[in-house]
Design goal:
mainly alpha; 441 residues; 79% helix
Length: 441
């Protein structure tokens, strides 16, 4: 498309994709999922899922985006008008997620501002309960969303690329520093054993729950299913190797997830908190309580919540970019106007989630258990069985051999499709059981 924006450099694309993946899914959700599924056992399952499912699925989205150089709706539309509905679902998914994601980002922003005074030290659980819903949650969520809109409004090269080139290295450096500090705590050794020591007995006795959890976490943390990687790849030059870029993104994203574990588990064990009981509120209750008892806890809180906030912003801008790209591609309207209008609409949609945590949990369940698994399943079917030759040719650009694209295509058609399909069935069944069947009782 003449005049369409593109990344200023290859590093810009890689940084933006890493920034999207390295969000709350890594810093918050990954340690929680690991804690809920046996620690080290989940680590092994996750590593295998990244190689066999995550990377091939990411490359599938890459080929769609760069082949068409269009937004997610029109990228799916290249396979026929009926497929545009799948693209529309991806765009709606990203908009749905950013609406409630901004509320969680607002929590992080509030905790960052409160860390210098230790405002949450006295009663961490009660403080989080008060901060999670109400007028304050609405205000901080709006503030977080305003930052997101501002970056997206500046465009691809001057906004998203510039921001993520700063944010991604900052995340890694700060997390390394926190991990080194966490290693000095009394509970570090026990935390490391729980997180890193292979537990093959747990692994083999819980495969039925461990494998779907690992696959689901990989798809979630790599930002697959909402059109992010399709959209970001649409701004990539044709000569670059998608395989090399994909490997770099997956490796850094995985390492950041492991770094998060090296920070969170020593902090939890230092407090005598059983990881499986920490819950999704670990970073706002258990971790906050750890800062209360540690030397220079206020400074540690600032660094920790700064890391989480940067990660959250880098993901939220990718989510807002999906619907923004669609309107910019198809209508004669300026990007700042589109980003602003979408930001206001996302704020309005997210109001109920800021006022009631049960509503936020429902929004998250709809996204993580229905919309995202459906989106990546449709990508896999589309690339594997509709867009196959074009996708294989696109993946071959920048490669000196042709065996890998053919093998990859059949791997997507069979292995990835079965894994993603299984994840979709389990996720939707879980959602129906938790939100439909139980409500009937």
């Amino acid at each position: 498309m003449p005049g369409r924006e593109h990344w200023g450099s290859r590093l810009g694309f890689i940084a933006a994709a890493i920034g999207s993946a390295v969000g709350l899914g890594n810093v918050w959700r990954f340690p929680y999922e690991a804690a809920s599924h046996g620690g080290s056992a989940f680590l092994l399952a996750d590593f295998v899922a990244v190689l066999l499912i995550g990377l091939p699925a990411m490359l599938a989205e890459f080929t769609m985006g760069r082949r068409t150089h269009r937004n997610v709706v029109d990228a799916f539309g290249a396979g026929g008008r009926a497929w545009k509905a799948a693209g529309a679902l991806a765009a709606v998914t990203s908009f749905w997620v950013v609406a409630y994601y901004s509320v969680v980002g607002g929590w992080v922003m509030r905790y960052l501002f409160e860390s210098p005074t230790g405002a949450y030290f006295a009663r961490p659980a009660a403080h989080f309960e008060a901060a999670a819903a109400g007028a304050d949650a609405l205000f901080y969520g709006a503030l977080f969303l305003l930052v997101t809109v501002g970056i997206v409004a500046f465009g691809i090269e001057r906004g998203i690329e510039l921001a993520t080139k700063i944010m991604v290295p900052a995340i890694v450096l700060l997390m390394v520093a926190l991990a080194l500090y966490a290693g000095t705590l009394p509970g570090a050794a026990a935390g490391y054993r729980y997180f890193l020591e292979p537990d093959f007995q747990y692994l083999f006795s819980n495969l039925d729950t461990l494998i779907p959890a690992a696959v689901g976490e990989v798809l979630f943390t790599l930002s697959l299913g909402s059109g992010i990687m399709i959209t970001y790849a649409s701004y990539v030059e044709d000569s670059e190797s998608l395989v090399t870029d994909g490997i770099a993104i997956v490796v850094v994203n995985t390492l950041v997830g492991y770094l998060a574990g090296l920070i969170v588990f020593p902090l939890l064990f230092a407090q005598g908190v059983r990881p499986g009981e920490a819950g999704a509120g670990a970073i706002f209750v258990s971790i906050a309580n750890a800062f209360r008892t540690l030397p220079a806890g206020e400074a540690l809180g600032v660094v920790f919540y700064l890391v989480v906030l940067i990660a959250a912003v880098s993901s939220s801008i990718s989510l807002l970019e999906i619907p923004t790209a669609y309107f910019v591609d198809n209508y004669p309207v300026r990007r700042p106007v589109v980003a602003g209008v979408l930001g206001v609409a996302a704020f309005l949609l997210g109001v109920p989630t800021a006022l009631n945590t049960a509503t936020l949990e429902l929004f998250d369940s709809v996204a993580s258990e229905v919309l995202l698994p459906s989106g990546i399943f449709l990508v896999t079917v589309f690339v594997g069985w509709n867009y196959g030759r074009e996708a294989m040719a696109e993946l071959g650009e920048g490669l000196h051999e042709r065996f890998l694209p053919r093998y990859w295509l059949w791997h997507v058609r069979i292995v990835v499709l079965l894994a993603v399909g299984m994840t979709l069935i389990i996720s939707v069944s879980s959602f129906i059981d938790a939100n439909v069947v139980q409500s009937l009782w």
